[in-house]
TrEMBL record:
GO terms for molecular function: oxidoreductase activity, acting on the CH-OH group of donors, NAD or NADP as acceptor. PROSITE patterns: ADH_SHORT. Belongs to the short-chain dehydrogenases/reductases (SDR) family. This is 3-oxoacyl-[acyl-carrier protein] reductase. GO terms for biological process: fatty acid elongation. It comes from the Bacteria.
Amino acid sequence: MTNLLTDKVAVITGGAQGIGEAIARRFADQGAFVVLGDRDGAAAELTAKAIGEDFARGFGCDVTNGEQVEALLQFAVESFGGVDVMVNNAGITRDATMKKMTEDEFDQVVAVHLRGAWLGTKHAAAVLREQGRGGSIVNMSSISAKVGFFGQTNYSAAKAGVVGLTKAAAKELARDNVRVNAIQPGLISTEMTRAMPEHIWESKMAEIPLQRAGTVEEIADVALFLASDMSSYMTGTVLEVTGGRLM
């Protein structure tokens, strides 16, 4: 069976660990060359080295800085000859109730998730247009965008914004055969979520019909679907990967 991303070049932000790393590994397994952008450039380089230096590169990038996002994409072009897929995955949390949340905590989360996804979409689109061969942009939203969670007014707002960004960008870029779609993960087993207090974990698990947390590999599989020609007639869509939680 032919690999789904043979000789494609994919850029993944937040690629040094967690979901981003899983996506990078899955894409590389399917024949892609991958560039891992991460604020921790050294960690991105270590992850790329573990994937394989012939297929992966790491690059330090703050996704809230447009010049750095442009540099990340240019690095991909210089390293592997172009860009075919952009995955805007980088994210942070600064959870607090509105009463306790500072303006800076709100701004930080919106900047990384929403401004970061906008900059990644904007600059990737410019490269894809210039190449003239189409492409795929995948934005990472969250189930928090759909329902809103206590203590996450910043995160829920930013992730809802990513949905609006995805749909608007999909309309603008369709004429260039550039597809833009989003993923909304639910409870995914990561280092961050496994650190939750047990009672909070159990309350979230009670909302999931499939009665388990998802894995980073399951998110990576959906990203692969959206990045590949298997989803060639899909743009502006939002795919929930939640085990049926809050449907």
